[in-house]
Amino acid sequence: MSETTRTAPLPRQIADAYVDALVQLDPVVGTELGVREAAGRLPDFSPDGGRALADLQRSTLASLADAADLPEAADAAEGRCARLLRERLTAELAVREAGEPLRAVGNLSSPLQLTRMAFTIMPTENEEDWAAVAQRLRAVPEALAGYRESLAAGLAAGLPGGPRQVTTVVGQLAEWVGTAGSGGWFGAFAARGPQSLSGELDAAARAATGALAELRGWLADDYGPAVADAPDVVGRERYARWARYWNGTDLDLEEAYAYGWSEFHRLHAELRKEAVRIAPDASDPWAVMRHLRTHGQVIEGVETTRRWLQDLMDEAIDALDGTHFELADPVRRVESMIAPPGGAAAPYYTSPSLDFSRPGRTWLPTLGHDRFPVFDLVSTWYHEGVPGHHLQLAQWVHRAEHLSRYQTTVGMVSANAEGWALYAERLMDELGFLADPERRLGYLDAQMMRAIRVIIDIGMHLEMRIPDDSPFRPGEVWTPASAQEFFARHTGQHEESVESELVRYLGLPGQAIGYKLGERVWLAGRDAARARAGSAFDAKAWHMAALSQGSLGLDDLAVELARL
Question: 194, 439, 453, 512: least CB-packed within 10 angstroms?
């Protein structure tokens, strides 16, 4: 081996050096990882901040090109890490260089949501923690000013955000700001701090809330009118770029669209069959779900619901550990939380810190409700919690020292994680956890929602034609309005959830399709491994090996799962 080869860095060293540098540029990533030194800062959302991130990505790719070239047989983990890092940074740079951060307005994932989320995952156990909260609150005005600068630069460059996104975000900000004198969301959060820091926290929260109000006014009065005539859909070129970013593969979008329709028809038949178990004369499964909202199994009260979801996850861990999974002690801990108001309608999960001092957490948006039907909660919490996101992402963190911090945290490919979580819902059905007709109807409705996501996300952004065998407007071209109507007709969700979902798809093109397309890869990988192993196939061993690889794009995932 030459001196050059021996001294060249390994891919995992380069990947973790990238994480260290990223934490300096994006302190919220640092908070997610549990780096306390990052706690008092926020990212630079201005164009200068974006250029610094792009420079880091380019320099990391250059370092990766010079990395030690190990044969795959010598260290498969190094090869997987190198492929992931190269693919992720290339996809991220493509999005960045196309100017997408200059038009980043959305109800689920934008600098605004990132800023607020940073506070919900901060430690708040002692005075030192709350001093960091105060410091971060003081950083909010500058962070939001940088975000506004980026949006203004986007307007100047002819890169507008979607008008429907702007309207929704203005509404979100109104809720975050609150009424005059209320202190808003930041004020309520700061009020939980110690009395010794109350003056400092209150002043910092008022400044942060004032910055939110100022940004809301600018979005409503200046930015909104400037983008009023912009399209909400992104077109094929932008969509393909985003689909690569979210899925880790270059998709055949026509094939994916057709697959979404095939799943729609399959699930429609299953839903009708399951609805008859509840109402023998039923012809419309969604009418049955509307009936269940009033007359089915329900949980009363927000805190009671939070505890019920915690029990559901704890029971799943006890039932699955040792039988279908082998869980380390830190992975067995997951917390059920109530999401702060003013966000999107979808439940979500946040990963544990690298040292597990902050556990994995599931978050339920209540949307002002205090009565929750069971039928659409159970499968969702198998998705968000156990055996879904929590088992995968917490297991990645548990394996971080054996892989790399990059592979187990910031290198996550959305379609891999969402595909696993949807596979986890199906697994619980296969294992008999959804035998109750109401719960199984909710599971099938959740599956149908993911099939509809493929159809309308691709359909409306690419303005595709609705097939002739569709029960809805055959032959017409998709629009956001028709997509919302189609979704509302074929889901058991509330109207406000349907609206929130559609705004989400318009603001995150290509992300929503990863659930079904990722699940397809997970199922195909399991089928291939089972076919190769025959009667010797060990599902528990396969699950744990699959969950211990860290992040992979769909291209790599298909190959790796098949040979486990």
Answer: 194
Nearest CA-CA partner of 210 in 256, 253, 178: 178
- H helices of 227-252, where? 235-247
CA angle centred on 358, ends 11 and 187, rounded to 5°: 120
101 against 294, higher pLDDT = 101
Percent of all residues in the chain with a pLDDT value above 70, rounded to a whole number: 98
Helix (H) or strand (E) holding 137: helix 127-156
CA R_g for the chain: 23
Residue 58 CA to its chain's centroid (Å): 25
The count of structural domains within the chain is 2
Instruction: Please give the single-letter amino acid code of residue 461.
Output: H
Q: What value does the mean pLDDT take over residues 177-188? A: 93
Q: What is the rounded distance in angstroms from the CA atom of residue 411 to the CA atom of residue 477?
A: 36
Cα(89)–Cα(6) distance, integer angstroms: 25
Q: What band does 344 get if pLDDT is binned at 50, 70 and 90?
A: confident
Q: Nearest 10 degrees: CA dihedral of 160, 162, 166, 168?
A: -170
Give yes or no for a contact between 161 and 151, defined as CB atoms under 8 angstroms apart.
Answer: yes
Asked if residue 396 lies in contact with residue 460, where contact means CB atoms within 8 angstroms, the answer is: no
Contacts of 44 (CB under 8 A, 6+ apart): 25, 52, 143, 146
**127-156 helix and 47-65 helix, angle to the nearest 10 degrees:** 100
Which alpha helices (DSSP H) does 321-435 contain, by range?
A: 378-384, 389-398, 405-408, 414-430
pLDDT band per the 50, 70, 90 thresholds, residue 72: low
Q: Establish if 143 belongs to a structural domain.
A: no
- Whether the pLDDT of residue 323 is over 80: the answer is yes
Range of the domain at 89: 1-98
**Domain end among 98, 131, 146:** 98
- Nearest Cα neighbor of 358 from 23, 24, 35 is 35
Contact 262, 469 (CB under 8 A): no
Which one-letter amino acid corresponds to residue 9?
P
* Tokens of residue 248, six digits: 């880790």
Q: How confident is the model at residue 345 (pLDDT cuts 50, 70, 90)?
A: confident
Q: What confidence tens digit (pLDDT) does each residue in 186-241 have?
A: 999 999 999 999 999 999 999 999 999 999 999 999 999 999 999 999 999 999 99
Peptide linkage before 101 cis (omega within 30 of 0): no
Q: Is residue 135 part of a domain?
A: no
